[in-house]
Specification:
Keywords: Carboxypeptidase, Hydrolase, Protease. This protein is of the alpha/beta class and 346 residues long. 31% of the residues lie in helices and 22% in strands. Helix 10 (285-306) links the parallel strand 12 (268-272) and strand 13 (311-316).
């Protein structure tokens, strides 16, 4: 197996692209977006460069692909950051110029609907970074979360191994962006209970692949996931979005992945903490615990059928909850079930 292709890292003072390959929500929530840009400058010392569709809702997929391609082609740009996710990036990636991406690999940061681009880069042999967004994480109300920013800083600027840390507190109930005053108040947080481990006590090393479960299911339907043989030995990373698919659907999506052989290929699985609150589903704390437990049971049932010997870690902070840790997509991951430790190489 060829070594993973980690793109060169930016340095403080560099120009970085800020793009909206999915939803152009900076157009609707400029106050959140501007806070994120300010922190990108002040906390990380990076100069954001916008593209024509960055602040446009409903931009043509070909125009969004043009901006992405331009960001990778520009020699003065050293990293590419997504503003947020969305639901139609699957229509954007077919219009990318893969020759340009291969010739100019750069660190790309995004999650959720950006699973499309992370998977696309993975198929081109380029390591991306699952996590980080200008609105959600750089624009977090109140103050940046220290775990998020420490992980993001390490992923942006360093290339060594980094230990992921269980969050001492977590949240999935964001403020209402429609109210600019909400940016003054930190989101509600709940006590952390650590990671939950299942499976054999052994150490697994592999390259990360996966992302948002709903998007992975769409990618399977579009026949855009890598062949099973290319994923053999991968550490599967899965998480669910604010659309909060019920446990039954989570099981079915994983079952479909299992029927394709994608679960058997993975000796270790990292499962993001399930988001269990949304404005349309304002669950109580107890309801959120019950929702998360049902999600864990659904994942356990699917893996028992298709990957019974896998090391499984639940409630890793790598998805749609707060804080968020960065995982190198296509990069190296070590899952140590003996010492109960997860390390990633940025």
């Amino acid at each position: 197996m060829t070594p993973p292709n980690y793109p060169p890292k930016p340095r403080p003072g560099d120009r970085v692209a800020v793009v909206s390959p999915s939803a152009g929500l900076p157009a609707i929530f400029p106050h959140v977006y501007e806070l994120g840009l300010r922190r990108l400058r002040e906390e990380f010392g990076l100069e954001p460069v916008e593209y024509p569709t960055t602040r446009v809702m409903g931009a043509d997929p070909r125009e969004r692909a043009r901006d992405l391609t331009a960001a990778f082609a520009d020699p003065t740009i050293t990293a590419v950051l997504a503003t947020i996710g969305g639901d139609d990036q699957i229509t954007v990636t077919p219009h990318l110029d893969d020759a340009v991406l291969r010739a100019n690999p750069k660190p790309f940061f995004g999650y959720s609907d950006n699973t499309n681009l992370l998977n696309h880069l993975h198929r081109l042999g380029i390591v991306g970074y699952h996590g980080g967004s200008v609105l959600v994480h750089l624009g977090r109300p109140g103050r940046p979360h220290p775990l998020t920013f420490d992980s993001l800083r390490a992923a942006l600027f360093t290339s060594g191994w980094y230990d992921l840390t269980p969050a001492p507190e977590w949240g999935d109930r964001p403020g209402d962006w429609r109210d600019p005053a909400s940016l003054a108040h930190e989101p509600e947080m709940l006590p952390g209970e650590g990671w939950r481990w299942q499976g054999p006590r052994r150490v697994v090393e592999g390259r990360a692949w996966g992302g948002n479960l709903e998007i992975l299911h769409w990618l399977m339907a579009a026949d855009r996931v890598p062949p099973v043989e290319a994923l053999a030995g991968s550490v599967l990373v899965v998480e669910t979005s604010e659309e909060m698919p019920p446990a039954t659907e989570v099981f079915r999506m994983l079952r479909n992945m299992g029927e394709r052989g994608l679960l058997t290929a993975s000796p270790a699985v990292l499962v993001g903490r399930a988001k269990a609150w949304d404005f349309e589903k304002p669950h109580s704390v107890e309801e959120r615990r019950e929702w998360a437990e049902a999600q864990r049971e659904a994942v356990t049932r699917a893996l028992a059928a298709y990957a019974p010997d896998a090391v499984v870690v639940f409630d890793v902070d790598l998805g749609h909850t707060d804080p968020q840790l960065i995982v190198p997509y296509g990069g190296e991951v070590r899952v140590d079930a003996v010492e109960r430790r997860i390390s990633v190489r940025y």
